[in-house]
Amino acid sequence: VIFLIAVMLFVCFVFPLGYAWRVWRLHEPTLGTWALVVADASVIVALVLLVGRWDMAGYYTRYLLLAVFVAAVLWSFGKHKSRNLRADDAPLIRTRWTTLVSLILFGSALAYVLSGMLPPAQPRALGFPLKGGRFVVAQGGGNGLLNHHANHPLQRYAADITAVGSTGFRAAALLPERLDGYAIYGASVISPCNGPVVAARDDLPDLVPPRSDSENSAGNHVIIDCGGFNVELAHLQQGSVAVEVGAVLSVGSLIGTVGNSGNTTEPHLHIHAVDPQSGAGLPVAFDGRVPLRNRRFVNW
Ligand SMILES: [Zn+2]
Predict the structure, then answer these.
(1) Distance, CA 136 to ligand 1 centroid (Å)?
(2) How far apart are the CA of 268 and the centre of ligand 1, in A?
(3) Cα(270) to centroid of ligand 1, in Å?
(4) Which residue has the higher pLDDT, 168 or 97?
(5) pLDDT in tens, 211-269
(6) 165 CA to centre of ligand 1 in angstroms
(7) Residue 43 above 80 pLDDT?
(8) Distance CA 105, CA 175 (A)
(9) Residue ranges near ligand 1 (ion) with Cβ within 5 Å
(10) Distance from residue 149's CA to the centre of ligand 1 (Å)
(11) How much distance in Å is there from the Cα of 271 to the middle of ligand 1?
(12) What's the pLDDT tens digit per position in 159-203?
């Protein structure tokens, strides 16, 4: 896990900066080849900015890197704007065919990612389930590049949520071994709907990353009947669950706190909605906003 996080952080920093540097230094013979190279670089940077885990690499870092890249494009455009659109003797396809192939491949990948960000049909309206911080969706969206639950029918629309501190990072290290090293650990979990509790458990231990409990995948959890569909909130802190089966909750009432119980790589809140009859996963929106990777919900 720690290796994957390191690779992800490397990609998040090196790709946007590397492509900004490349665009900054461009000396293309025509405006046409310049536009092709810049389009290819922009598509790759857009992919990294959309798919990257910016709760880990820094929520504000993402905007800083975007600003650096845009500045490089503007600077480079200033140098190229008076050049001819194309040269008569060298067609675009012959001089820059590798760039064209790259643009088609990464452009397709970007289209696929964007398709996973389209709003799902009829999301169930919920309140945001956390209080007391700046929260960021770590896993959420309509396909596997944005949401590791997406290929699991029951949890197709599930979301994993972390929190970031004032500087925009979810923790001060790659994978701290102290649970309170994660901004979200201990955050208040609140009811996203009105309705009775149908299941509650809080006897499982909070595990130190990278340990996890694959036999009790949800860990400590609460399931609420939100009126025609059930919502499950998972990986709660041991001993923190403040509600019992049968208790009728209203939006915003305290359920417990975020822990690290069950099958989890690090402290976060997992939430999903299901149709209790069919068992099918249902899309949700928190205060009208669908949980998509890197979307922020501030709730103090
Ligand atoms: Zn999850």
Answers:
(1) 14
(2) 8
(3) 4
(4) 168
(5) 999 999 999 999 999 999 999 999 999 999 999 999 999 999 999 999 999 999 999 99
(6) 21
(7) yes
(8) 33
(9) 160, 270
(10) 7
(11) 7
(12) 999 999 999 999 999 999 999 999 999 999 999 999 999 999 999
Distance CA 206, CA 266 (A): 10
Q: Measuring CA to CA, which residue among 232, 171, 182 is closest to residue 207? A: 182
In contact, 19 and 45? CB cutoff 8 Å: yes
Output helix, strand, coil percentages for the chain, rounded to the nearest 5. Answer: 35, 20, 45
90 CA distance to ligand 1 middle (Å) = 52
State the DSSP code for 208.
P
Angle in degrees, CA 214, 225, 297, rounded to 5: 70
For ligand 1, the distance from its centroid to the CA atom of residue 63, given in whole angstroms, is 26
Nearest CA to 130 among 93, 155, 163? 163
Q: Assess contact for 256 and 187: CB atoms under 8 A.
A: no
3-state SS, one letter per residue, for 222-261 = EEEECCCCEEEEEEECCCCCCCCCCCEECCCCEEEEECCC
pLDDT higher than threshold 80 for residue 89? no
